Amino acid sequence: MARPRTVIGTFGDFSYVDTTGGRVKARVRFRDDDGQLRQVQATGTSRKAAERELKAKLAKRARYAGGVGELSADSPFMRLVEVWLADLDLEGKIAPSTRSLYEWNMRKLVLPAFEHFTLREVTVSRVDRFIKTLAATRSHSTAKQAKVVLSLALGLAVRYEAIGKNPVRDTARLRRPQSQAVSLTVEQVEAIRRAVRDWRRGTGLSGPKPDGQLEAIIEVMLGTSARIGEVLAIRKCDVDVTVNPATVRLCGTIVSPTGKPTYRQSHPKTAKSARTVSIPSFSAEVLRQRLVTVADEDGEHLLFYSRNHTPLTTNNVRRRLRAVLEGAGIDGVTPHSFRRTVATVLDRAGGADLAAEMLGHTSSQITKQHYIEPDDTVNPTTAQILEALAPAESARSARSATEGSGTAPGSD
């Protein structure tokens, strides 16, 4: 009868060889994950010692993988990063901007902490300490982004059977620090408008004068609730000023992949956030003016563009806005501040569902949590209702005052 095949991940009988110096070598044939039998050995001062060393070595033995691009528990973490990035490109399911962000987060946040470890050494405790330290020294958002890419990469290692489980899943939950959305007041919006309108328009300044696009971009953000990238992606064909109120189709965004030209992506941040919004008169007016500037261009031409008629980058617009406002002594305002302001104004007048619809959110819960400034003022109707609980003496005094005035209920 033929000798039974050794099961993958198991080994046969131990053999022993005496070596010089009174030491003993224990040997055994181990069947790796690729089906190959390989000899594993260890030495000790006695048979028992050599056997213990060999068993310990077998318990920690890496799963053998011989193919190109495959991983084992003893693969360097850097090797996993290379395979993971290649896998992202192979899938092709994420946007180029997201792909660039993932790689940046991995190389700048995660890799410095784990580049000298093998995959088996990336343990739950090490990952947990890394994420908590990042949250404490940087920010909750930074730690969350690092946790996401680390989990994705280690998830790939699990699928390649290099490790048994994803250690990120057993780490402590990241607790978001308490914060609340803050919107701009009408007075603050007017101050921003003045600062942008007056920027670099005095006499005696060298260089070209501002072209007015920043002022227009702000008015469009205030009238549409759009993200800065969505505003910069508005084309001539997306605007209809022939109806009342005028409408804008928000159906794209501007992305700037690392090492590649900035371009207009054919959908916003998420495909479901594409929407057509009616806009107030002040936004419609600046869009009419922008339409005049592109009157000779085709319908696909952007309303906001550089001198070379290429897309403006979101980073450049943010930097310019920051420079203008810092010069006017206004701090803490970003393009997202206008989005939160729109959400808060709409919530006060029409409720959170209307604000969520305008912002392109699928749930008003996101809008409430991150965009609407909380209002802790209770409806004043409560004061009238609670008059029913007034003390009896107060009620009699009120009746006496009424009688003393010469009037009575029901009198002419």
Low-confidence stretches: 64-69
Q: How would you classify the helix and strand content by structural class?
A: mainly alpha
Estimated share of beta-strand residues: 5-15%
Distinct helical segment count = 15
Describe the structure.
By secondary structure, the protein is mainly alpha-helical. The longest helix is centred in the middle third of the chain and has 20 residues. The protein has 15 helices and eight strands. α3 packs across α5. It is elongated. The strands form three sheets. The chain has a three-stranded antiparallel beta sheet. About 1% of the residues have low confidence.
Quick structural summary:
45% of the residues lie in helices and 9% in strands. The strands form three sheets. Strands 1-2-3 form a three-stranded antiparallel beta sheet. The chain has a three-stranded antiparallel beta sheet with strand order 4-5-8, with no helix packed on it. It has a two-stranded antiparallel ribbon with strand order 6-7.
